[in-house]
Amino acid sequence: MADVKPYPVTVTGELSDPPGRWQWIFKWLLLIPHSIALYFLGIAAGVVTIIAFFAILFTGKYPRSPFDFMAGYWRWSWRVGFYGYGALGTDKYPPFTLDKAAYPADFDIVYP
């Protein structure tokens, strides 16, 4: 069999035991600050995507800092979705960071 390469993207989520019974009703209120921050980060991500496109077009490589920013943006979005609306998988409030953190949901991508 041919050499099997692992997937470059890893998405994990550990369900808490058991999730709160009624907290899901109020989680949308708790997510308002995250939604505002992710809205502006989404605008920045669009600009970074355009800049990275031209950098890749002319150099043939994805610059490391735009890659790290985009990976951090996707990581934060996944944590918020896992907490609030995507899975309702945990009652632990997601951190306000683009970096990796000790949290039940994680998103990791290998730099090409």
- What portion of residues is helical? 40-55%
Q: Could you spell the SSE succession in H and E letters?
A: EHHHE
Radius of gyration from CA coordinates = 16 Å
* N-to-C span: 24 Å
Q: What's the overall average pLDDT, rounded?
A: 86
Beta-strand fraction estimate: 5-15%
How many domains? The number is 1
What spatial order of strands do you see in the largest sheet? 1-2
Describe this structure in words.
The protein has three helices and two strands; from the N terminus they run E-H-H-H-E. It has one domain. Helix 2 runs antiparallel to helix 3 (about 65-85). With about 110 residues, the protein is mainly alpha-helical. The relative contact order is 0.24. Strands 1-2 form a two-stranded antiparallel sheet.
Characteristics of this structure?
single chain, 112 residues, mainly alpha, two-stranded antiparallel sheet, 9% strand, flat
Give a short synopsis of this structure.
The chain is mainly α and 112 residues long. The protein has helices at residues 23-30, 32-59, 64-83; strands at residues 9-13, 105-109.
Topology:
Blueprint: E1 9-13, H1 23-30, H2 32-59, H3 64-83, E2 105-109
